[in-house]
Amino acid sequence: MEDTTPPAGPAADPSPMPPSPLPLAGLKVLELGQLIAGPFAAKTLADFGAEVIKIEAPGAGDPLRRWRLLKDGTSVWWQVQARNKRSLALDLKDPAAQDIVRRLADESDVLVENFRPGALEGYGLDPAALMARNPKLIVLRISGYGQTGPYRDKPGFGVVAEAMGGLRHLTAEPGRTPVRVGVSIGDTLAGLHGVIGVLTALHERQRSGRGQVIDVALYEAVFNCMESLLPEYSAFGAVREPAGSALPGIAPSNAYRCKDGHALIAGNGDSIFKRLMAAIARDDLGRDPTLADNAGRVARVAEIDAAIGVWTAPQTVAAVLVALDAAAVPAGRIYTVADIAADPHYAARGMLDQLTMADGSRLAVPGICPKLSRTPGRHRRNAPTLGQDNAAVLAELAVPKKATPAG
């Protein structure tokens, strides 16, 4: 059931214009695979108007349907990951189902898959063969280690990719066991890199008229976000070590204890540092010429962090943020999801979307990001039930009922 309630925000125009056409309207995407990375990429394309047909195994469907907290037997996460998609239940081991996938690929602009390398070929759906039938087809392949290389055939989940990509080593307090980021960030980063690849290939296709294969490895997507990690090792032999909530080599930027929690303070700009020191009554540090730039502050970061901590310790987080807002110093609290749900800025920017479930209840889900000024994405359709669109999709393909595989 589609929810037409506009997102919370400024007062609506009394005579609103009809919604603009979505920027990816007319783009046909065929989604294979399951769980997070590939489906996240397809979801992002769907948010901006792409028609996504998701192939799922009959009976159970995508395992994400049963992950974490369930409402009426289905994960509420599913309402985020599968919104704006259609569901076609097909057993890819069935030759008749494989033929349907080929016919769908003939009419598609993009195919998204995140099986282990070789699995798609095992179903008789080799990308080269599909592209021979449809030379304009763009195939996005997301896997743990990529389609080539000595680790190609190893199973790879996002958590392993986060470790191999260098992220897990940094997420710890010094001397303690590294911890994972609390969400599947490796999968999401791979999905976003996949979207970048698809949009880039679509742009190139306008010139060449040809599709191509996009090979995204989860560990590479993580590694691509590791900033100066490799060049620092190459130039200086420096191995960046865990630093807790601090940001090594940039000062001051840390989480500082208050009497009721922690405040995150980023005073690492030269002029910002002076304002921060004035706000905490340490003008002596703000005027110190040896602390006028980042290199000088890094050399004395322990002293600076201690001074800020002395100021924050007896205060509430709220009081600290009021003072630093007044001084134009970047600072914030550590949000829980309850904080997010109550925050007026999230609401004003339409990031707390509300959809209507089949039973009439309302469910809050993340809004659409990024924001486009003229053709923004929107929530057009709730996540489908398993096989919800079988009849419609197969009718569009003119598949005779007697040739329809069980689904």
Describe the structure.
By secondary structure, the chain is an alpha/beta fold. It contains 18 helices and 13 strands. The strands form four sheets. It has a six-stranded parallel sheet with strand order 5-2-1-6-7-8, sandwiched between helices. A three-stranded antiparallel sheet has the order 9-10-11, covered by helices on one side. A two-stranded antiparallel sheet has the order 3-4. It has two domains: 249 residues, Rossmann fold (3-Layer(aba) Sandwich); 62 residues, no CATH class.
The shape is elongated
Please state the structural category: alpha/beta
User: How large, in whole angstroms, is the Cα Rg?
Assistant: 25 Å
| Mean pLDDT across residues | 93
Poorly predicted segments: 1-15
Give the total of beta strands. Answer: 13
**Strands in their spatial order, largest beta sheet:** 5-2-1-6-7-8
Q: Would you identify the CATH H-level superfamily of the largest domain? A: Crotonobetainyl-coa:carnitine coa-transferase, domain 1
**Per CATH, which architecture of the largest domain?**
3-Layer(aba) Sandwich
Tell me the major beta sheet: 6 strands, parallel
Query: Could you tell me the strand content as a percent range?
Result: 5-15%
* Through-space gap between termini: 22 Å
Query: In total, how many domains does the architecture comprise?
Result: 2
Nutshell version of this structure?
The protein has helices spanning 37-47, 78-81, 95-106, 119-122, 127-133, 158-164, 167-170, 185-208, 218-223, 229-236, 270-279, 283-286, 294-299, 301-312, 317-326, 337-342, 344-348, 390-396; strands at 28-31, 51-56, 70-71, 74-75, 85-89, 110-113, 138-143, 213-217, 253-258, 261-266, 331-333, 352-356, 362-366.
